[in-house]
Amino acid sequence: MKKRQMNSLAASLCAYLCSRNNDIAGYWGIGKLCEVARRERKRKFSFKFRPSELIQIYGYEITNSRLITDKLAKFDLDSIEGRLSFLRMDATRTERRNIRAASLLPSLRIGAQV
């Protein structure tokens, strides 16, 4: 797979995970994971996507995600691994205000295995 294709696939997956078109049990997927991160004080979630399997992150299944993972076979990939990271939980009041004013989207890192 060419680097350009890999970057395109990674960008598409990040956009899908951050969009409001994915959900976990009827709630926005990222919002649900953010709630779990705050409650359990867990800042990072690792995941692995495989072709034709539902996406699960920290035991939470993303609804209709098989439509996304079916596309992995098109690229001849066995799996894609990634990590979803949230901002610090111990930020000061001023830092939290600045974080809310900036962006609420999490950081995503994705890599593929051929």
Task: Explain what this protein looks like in three dimensions.
This protein has 114 residues and is of the alpha+beta class. It has one domain (3-113). 40% of the residues lie in helices and 25% in strands. It has 4 helices and 7 strands; from the N terminus they run αββαβββαβαβ. The chain has helices at 3-18, 29-40, 66-74, 93-101; strands spanning 23-24, 27-28, 44-49, 56-57, 60-61, 79-85, 107-113. The chain has a 3-stranded antiparallel sheet with strand order 3-6-7, with helices on one face. A two-stranded antiparallel ribbon has the order 1-2. The longest helix is centred in the first third of the chain and has 16 residues, at 3-18. The N and C termini lie close together (8 Å). Residues 100-105 have low confidence and may be disordered.
Fill in the keyword field for this structure.
25% strand, alpha+beta, 3-stranded antiparallel sheet, 114 residues
Brief write-up:
This protein is α+β, with helices and mostly antiparallel strands and 114 residues long. It is built from four helices and seven strands.
**Mean model confidence by pLDDT:** 75
Estimate the helix proportion, in percent. Answer: 40-55%
Tally the helices: what do you get?
4
The major pleated sheet works out as: 3 strands, antiparallel
Number of domains: 1
Secondary structure: number of strands: 7
Which band does the percent of strand residues land in?
15-25%
Give helix and strand order, one letter per element, not per position: HEEHEEEHEHE
Q: Give the CA-CA distance, first to last residue.
A: 8 Å
Structural class: alpha+beta
Spatial sequence of strands, sheet with the most strands: 3-6-7
From the spread of the alpha carbons, the general shape counts as globular
Unreliable spans are 100-105
